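Figure 2 data, in text form.
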Amino acid sequence: MKKSISLITAFTLSILLLASIGSLVQAEDDSAEVQLEVEIVEPEPPYQPPYQYQGAPPAPPELPKGTTDVRGMVGDGCSFIEPVTAVSDDELCTLTVPVGTVGLTEDLECLPEITMVTMDDPPPPPPDAHVIGLPYDFGPDGATFEEAIILTFTYDPDALPEGVSVEDLVIAYFVDGEWIELDECVIDTETNTITASVNHFTTFAVIGAPPEVVEEKIKPTPVRPVVVEKEEEPAVIEEEEPVVEEEEEPAVVEEKEEPVVVEEEEIPAPAGVNWAVIGPVMGVVAGFILLLLVRRRKAQVTRR
């Protein structure tokens, strides 16, 4: 259709040009003959793409999970001209790149894409610790960033190993056969996430280790001979029996009994009695009786 319109236009212009020239020539000399050659040039066909399509152009091929294309988000100097949020293939790990961050590959070229995929053959966990969830391999491997980028992991609090609490979780990266923990990890127990800042790409994971139990070493106590000291028996204080002073009985003033005067009745001496002999005998008997009476009196006083 377009080709036919072009040919008609060219032919019309040729006739008009021929009529104009003929009028000019006839004005000068009516007997002159004019020869006019007309060349028809076909226009170049419009550009045709290598494939024909009808309607909207086809969508670009779908990227694999865990891959984010950033070619349209990087400007001059490999600086990000808009914020980028990349998501891992299992959607449990996100990476946020702020505007103005310069990201370079290991060959110092601009980043074409960001990959975050779980590892089929992860490195072993550190001694006496656990890898919570799965490790992720970030790419391009060896990429670096001039400004810190934000890495966020989502964890399952119900899947933590025995002895490991949420406060024991940290983000670590694996390099040269060793896990190195990142500083200033922030844990949000409401969203069950842990966040840290990174500036390079490698293998990252969440590490949890039970708190160390510090065992105090008890130094052996040197055995010394036990000296058993005999307890001194308390001195027995002999209690002196109280001396009860016997109240002195009032002295009994013994009244001297007046000797009983036995009045000797004068018995008339019988005739023929020898009073010279009987007189002394009677005196002795009287003295003996008197002595018995005195002793008896003393005995009665003592008994009282």
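Caption note: The chain has a mean pLDDT of 77.
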